[in-house]
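Customer escalation, tier 2.

The customer says the design service returned an amino acid string that "doesn't look like it belongs to this structure." They asked us to rerun it and document both sides in this ticket. The original structure tokens are below, unchanged.
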């Protein structure tokens, strides 16, 4: 399988995010990722809108779990540690929250601005070990593009 061209995808994303509106930009970001990156069944944002809690934001895929406490799941681990969580086998991750039974691997990127956690970006795949080092770096870069393109004021209570 050929690897994804994340340089090109980041350029596409930057040109797509032609407004400062975080909601529009988040929606466009998930749509582009779902369309362009192969083997994904769910892509979306959770926002740090309540203390130590993640609230479902724009996404593509099945209706999802909401809210997610910082203590729970892969998303909670990303929020707590502020480190990207790359899980090759979600069934082996203690406390993984099942939103779509077809998910086999997962990548959750924390989104930080000014040392505050704004939210996380979550990608699920039906393929075990879907995400490589290059995918992780590329998707972290897409998250950074979204953050720098967007006016985040007023978007998340835990953030403001
Ligand atoms: N699996 C995630 C929950 C979110 S869904 O995958 C959309 C978790 O364990 O945090």
């Amino acid at each position: 399988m050929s690897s994804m061209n994340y340089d090109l995808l980041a350029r596409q994303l930057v040109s797509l995010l032609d407004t400062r509106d975080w909601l529009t930009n988040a929606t466009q970001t998930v749509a582009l990722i779902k369309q362009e990156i192969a083997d994904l069944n769910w892509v979306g944002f959770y926002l740090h809108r309540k203390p130590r809690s993640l609230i479902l934001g724009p996404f593509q895929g099945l209706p999802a779990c909401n809210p997610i406490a910082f203590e729970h799941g892969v998303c909670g681990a990303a929020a707590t540690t502020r480190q990207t969580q790359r899980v090759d086998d979600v069934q082996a991750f203690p406390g993984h929250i099942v939103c779509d039974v077809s998910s086999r691997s997962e990548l959750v990127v924390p989104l930080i601005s000014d040392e505050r956690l704004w939210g996380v970006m979550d990608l699920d795949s039906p393929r075990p070990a879907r995400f490589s080092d290059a995918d992780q770096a590329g998707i972290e870069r897409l998250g950074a593009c979204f953050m720098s393109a967007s006016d985040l004021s007023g978007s998340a209570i835990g953030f403001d």
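Tier 2 assessment: The sequence is consistent with the input. Strands lie at 42-50, 53-60, 68-69, 85-87, 105-113, 116-125. The first strand starts at residue 42 and ends at 50. Sent an explanation to the customer and offered a walkthrough call.
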